[in-house]
Amino acid sequence: MPIPSVQTAHPADRPLKGLINVPGDKSISHRALIFGALCVGETAIHDLLEGEDVLATAQALQSYGARIERDDGGVWRINGVGIGGLMPPRDVLDLGNSGTGARLLLGLAASHGLTSVFTGDASLRQRPMQRVITPLAEMGAAFEAAPGGRLPLTVRGRDSLMPVEYQPPVASAQIKSAVLLAGLNTPGQTTVIEATPTRDHTEHLLRHFGADVEITEDSGGNRRITLTGRPELRPQTVRVPGDPSSAAFPIAAALLVPGSEITVKGVGLNPLRAALFDTLREMGAIIGETNRRMDQGEPIADLEVRAGPLRGIEVPPDRAPSMIDEYPVLAAIAAHATGPTVMRGIAELRVKESDRIAAMVTGLKSLGVEVEELDDGMIVHGNGGHGGPPPARRDARVETEMDHRIAMSFLVYGLGAQAPVKVSGCEMIETSFPGFAKLMNGLGGRIEAAP
Ligand code: S3P
Fold first, then answer.
1. pLDDT by residue (tens digit) across 346-363?
2. Which one from 325, 355, 375, 403 is the annotated catalytic residue?
3. Is 7-24+241-449 assigned to CATH 1.20.1330.10?
């Protein structure tokens, strides 16, 4: 059934309660598919995120010759082509809304002697690709991109690139991963140097599939990730943990709706991903962890959340890479807290699926929240200390710039508000969180198609 584009979140009239699972981690899902496609033999992926972004990556990998099927039990089975074994794609590769899919696959395409054409939806065609073109061109691949280093672009790859030592100019796991993926089919050692560590799922999965990855710290405190090229990757079983970036939304709702108590099972808590939960605890949130365990190099736990008063804080800017996708929902939560929440050092938010700083500032203002926009962040003045959430205008409709996380942030905001909030662009939620409204409604929320 098609997802209604405009949805209304009604103020919850009862506490949210329940035990839920959220969909699989998006970052790990893309990577598991890619590594499976680079093995000869069958990789099995459990709990893959079946969102549009990940399915676009699967389709691109099929175009390169990998066999990818979902069995009746919901397990994804990949029969790959081996490192260096990609076939010329049968068609243009359309990565839809997915920056991760596009940038990671560019690394792969660059390191094979074939020509690929990449494109995406209107949002993805606006997003900067030069950040991966620069290191991949330094390694020896050739690119012809749309003005500004954007999609659509043609990449002419080579079977033997030059290994590089590359320090990305911005903290980005996508840049790191594109270079490391190119390094897989490159003789010698490829090194990425990170001044600020970013999510390390690529490193974990490379090791899980049998590659030699060395991680050290240099004298300047930088992280050096060195991959030895041309390993033989061995097919594996991968269990994808629940996505902390998706768990953030029901957790936010449970914090905001009085009396709520929910548990989210099996959430991935990689320290380079999970800083939102630390931030929320600093704001006074009660978020307990049970059943903590390690699985395939990733920490996982069940999160138990209870509603309660929150106070605004200053989020340390150096925390940004470890919660980069969570600032929109944090801004929505902050509007219901007491006092200002200061978020700085997040200029990268301006080049995500939308300009997320502008989208949150505009949307919150339209709901009557006092917000200041900064070049590299925002300050949200919460008024939750005065007996409830900020008053939303009855006719408010928030434009979400076709950005899934902006849409979910405002729907969650609405569940904790005094008046319904109407949100546009909700079909985009399918890119990362299929079944979002149903899951929230199962907890006791009321999100429905707007009349
Ligand atoms: C991702 C990295 C982050 C994040 C994105 C997923 C990844 O992007 O915002 O949603 O899977 O590597 P950047 O690497 O551009 O910061």
1. 999 999 999 999 999 999
2. 325
3. no
